[in-house]
């Protein structure tokens, strides 16, 4: 048996939805804790994204008994503030963690409509600021195995052209360039004979992410966890994506954040796989 994860406990530390009577906090953002038991007996702990603000994440983690000081890694799936905003404060509690991200994640990233607004990594979490804390930073555009059976996807091969927000731009040498969101990456967890993918916003398009992840890990993706960014898609567009996921034989989708309630309702109607809604405090066990 090749290197793999025996079991992974996925805990949603923050999502846009707090759930019903959970007593957890919510915010517009996403942060997911991964506790993986590796095939060699080791344990690996990490975060996928750090939400928009650290305080509710820290409070939820304390309520869940999750020690942020024990983190081995923090993956930033892309630059947007609702996935990177809590970085500085989280890193101060997790000084031994390695931050992993795309090489262009710290670009100056704006949205122009309905009015210009900076939406990138906060300035208090730039490389120079993080280095003052002493944290380690790994910037990679290629897939990398960060623990036995745990992969960062690297840049996703875009077989299908994603529908991106036209008003997203970045500044480079005094010019504004339409942003293709090439920094959109995911986490891949390889179990014994299958894979799970944890996404941030799926700007690279979820079917591309699934196909790319299968190539990286060498196993079939059966589970999707995270945001799918279907909130701004038409019903026909959502139906087409669900049809493709049906064809890819997805078995479970745990979705939230930017997926959108209307799109989730369409998924419930059209999907041949199980669809569940994420919320702060939700736990998912993979084995």
From TrEMBL:
Domain spans labelled Metallo-beta-lactamase: 28-257
A GO MF term: hydrolase activity
Entry superkingdom: Archaea
Protein name: MBL fold metallo-hydrolase
Organism field: Thermoproteota archaeon
């Amino acid at each position: 048996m090749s290197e793999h994860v025996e079991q992974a406990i996925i805990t949603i530390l923050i999502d846009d939805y707090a759930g019903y009577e959970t007593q957890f906090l919510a915010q517009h953002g996403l942060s997911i804790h991964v506790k993986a038991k590796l095939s060699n007996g080791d344990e690996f702990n990490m975060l996928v994204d750090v939400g928009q603000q650290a305080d509710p994440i820290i409070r939820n983690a304390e309520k869940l008994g999750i020690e942020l000081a024990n983190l081995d890694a923090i993956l930033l799936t892309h630059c947007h503030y609702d996935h990177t905003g809590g970085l500085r404060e989280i890193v101060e509690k997790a000084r031994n963690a390695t931050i992993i991200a795309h090489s262009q994640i710290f670009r100056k990233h704006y949205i122009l409509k309905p009015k210009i607004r900076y939406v990138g990594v906060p300035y208090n979490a730039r490389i120079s600021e993080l280095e003052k804390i002493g944290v380690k930073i790994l910037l990679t555009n290629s897939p990398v195995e960060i623990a036995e059976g745990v992969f960062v996807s690297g840049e996703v091969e875009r077989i299908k052209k994603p529908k991106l927000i036209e008003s997203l731009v970045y500044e480079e040498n005094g010019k504004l360039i339409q942003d293709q969101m090439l920094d959109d990456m995911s986490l891949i967890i390889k179990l014994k004979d299958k894979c799970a993918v944890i996404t941030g916003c799926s700007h690279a398009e979820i079917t591309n992410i699934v196909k790319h992840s299968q190539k990286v890990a060498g196993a079939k993706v059966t589970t999707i966890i995270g945001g799918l960014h279907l909130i701004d898609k038409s019903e026909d567009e959502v139906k087409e994506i669900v049809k493709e996921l049906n064809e890819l034989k997805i078995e479970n989708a745990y979705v939230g954040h930017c997926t959108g309630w209307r799109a989730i309702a369409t998924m419930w109607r059209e999907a041949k796989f199980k669809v569940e809604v994420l919320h702060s405090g939700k736990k998912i066990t993979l084995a």
